[in-house]
Amino acid sequence: MTTHEAMAAVGFCGEWIILTCDTKLVAVHTKQSREAFVFDCSAAEKKPKSTNEDHNRFMGTESRDIIMQCIGNVEVSQFVSSVISDDGASEETGSDKILTFAVSPSGKLLALTDDNKRLVLFHCEPSWRCISVRCVVRRCTSLQFSHAEDVLLAADKSGDVYSFSVVEPQTEGELKMGHLSMLLAVTVSPDDRYIITADRDEKIRVSHLGTPYNIQSFCLGHQQFVSALLVPQSHPQWLLSGSGDGTVKLWEYESGRQLQSWDLDELEETRSSDADRQKKPAVCRISCSPDARHLAVQCERVSTLHFCSVEDEEKLVSRCRLPLPCCPLDVTFDPAGRLWVLMDCSDAPLRVYAHRGDSWECDAESPELNRVTAAFKPHWDTLEASTRTNKRFEHLHKVSFDNVTAYLQKKQQRLEEQQLKRTKAQQANGKKKAKTETPEAATQS
After folding, report:
1. The three-state (H, E, C) secondary structure of the chain, written as one string
2. Which of 54, 102, 173, 216 could bridge 206 with an S-S bond, Cβ 3.0-4.6 Å?
3. Residue 390 near residue 8 (C-beta atoms within 8 A)
4. Inter-residue contact 172 to 53 (CB < 8 Å)
5. Could you tell me which of 286, 319, 321 has the C-alpha nearest to residue 300?
6. How far apart are the C-alpha atoms of 74 and 418, rounded to whole Å?
7. Of the candidates 308, 329, 320, 421, the residue with the CA atom closest to the CA atom of residue 361
């Protein structure tokens, strides 16, 4: 498995609610009594053989043979051979678990990628059908459709972004750009002019989508990995980012200017264990309602959702908090603006909340909820609790060592010890001087 673990997730594709768990994608129509669509990656078409086009572009077969001949150490040779193997990584077998999925802006297309490095593209209207199964070079961490829906962007654990054609669904991916560390999120501007990527090394990079080697700006300021990106529909020139440092930041992304930083430390008291309280709440999802009035912020292993809105005065305004009975695994808004929450709970894995007045209220009697739960629960019940639990960012926190503080403390200790030695020496000299002066004074008297 990759550091970016498989996850249970929820989303909407038009009126279809999408739920992923383990190797399965389940789609249930919320308005009509239509048969649920289930796609199981463990029974899907196996990954086609790589044609090596991407890697031969950088290193051909002859070059690799020369390198192998120049290496005498067998163990080193085997290691290098695995690094530059056909798929660019060691040939370990995946688990078929779904890593991530994305829905196109129109809600008519869906793409998913799994641990076996397959990229599957679907069309969901008028009925569900699989358009293509392609392979990715490395395991993906995030997918994003362009707003024109002609391109699907796939970000992977090595820091690369590949572009896959939607119009020509059988063509292989094209390497577009790369970071020096694992990518965790990717999005595009509403006009498809910019591609915005975020990585483990706290960087947010804004590049031109057509020519990604042209970097427009960097949005720098987070102290830990950047795990969530969102361009609010009401303000297409702004960007929201969430991080493992426990903050949500608002940016003017074209210039890289930070407009506001919103600290979520107040959620710390709701975290489930002492170990969690020692870390900042990692933001794992920022979701926007269709009317752009509500923003829901979800933090990993925190049982409270925080709602805010983006105002014209270039600021985030906190609206309310929603305590949940247990930690959510994922959240999403439906086309009507209701919030669906996927819970780490066997009895009631789904909840629906409607906004009434100034708060969010549970809609437990929703007929859509009952229909979806009935269709989804058999698949959910087959999962172990450890499989459902969301721990995507557990290993991404960087441990920092404050060498300066330790140095200053040791320096202060040395100074105090030296001062103590001087004081003792002065006291000893004073006693000796007093003894020598006493007989002289007696003689003079």
Report:
1. CCCCCCCCEEEEECCEEEEEECCEEEEEECCCCCCCEEEEHHHCCCCCCCCCHHHHCCCCHHHHHHHHHHCCCHHHHHHHHHHCCCCCCCCCCCCCCEEEEEECCCCCEEEEEECCCEEEEEECCCCCEEEEEEECCCCEEEEEECCCCCEEEEEECCCEEEEEECCCCCCCCEEEEECCCCEEEEEECCCCCEEEEEECCCEEEEEECCCCCCEEEEEECCCCCEEEEECCCCCCCEEEEEECCCEEEEEECCCCEEEEEEECHHHHHHECCHHHHCCCCCEEEEEECCCCCCEEEEECCECEEEEEEEECCCEEEEEEEEECCCCEEEEEECCCCCEEEEECCCCCCEEEEEEECCEEEECCCCHHHHHHHHHHHHHHHCCCHHHHCCCCCCCCCCCCCCHHHHHHHHHHHHHHHHHHHHHHHHHHHHHHHHHHHHHHHHHHC
2. 216
3. yes
4. yes
5. 286
6. 57
7. 320
- One-letter amino acid at 436 equals T
Q: Which residue has the tokens 């007045």?
A: 357
395 pLDDT higher than 80: no
Residue 36, pLDDT > 90, answer yes
In this prediction, residue 423 carries a pLDDT of: 84
How far lies 260's CA from each of 241, 310, 328, in Å? 11, 11, 26
Q: Tokens 């910019």 identify what position?
A: 194
pTM: 0.78
Tens of pLDDT, residue by residue over 197-254, are 999 999 999 999 999 999 999 999 999 999 999 999 899 999 999 999 999 999 999 9
Whether residue 224 contacts residue 241, with contact meaning beta carbons closer than 8 Å, is answered with no
As a whole number of angstroms, the distance between CA 344 and CA 380 comes to 10
The pair of structure tokens assigned to 165 is: 């054609």
Nearest to 180 by CA among 218, 228, 208: 218
Report the side by side order of strands in the sheet with 350-356: 328-333, 339-343, 350-356, 359-362
**Angle at the Cα of 424 (from 423 to 425), degrees rounded to 5?**
90
With beta carbons less than 8 A apart as the criterion, state whether 166 and 151 touch.
yes
Structure tokens at 131: 């358009």
Q: Are 390 and 330 in contact (CB under 8 A)?
A: yes
Structure tokens at 218: 């960097």
Of the candidates 253, 252, 309, 321, which has an alpha carbon nearest to the alpha carbon of residue 281?
A: 321
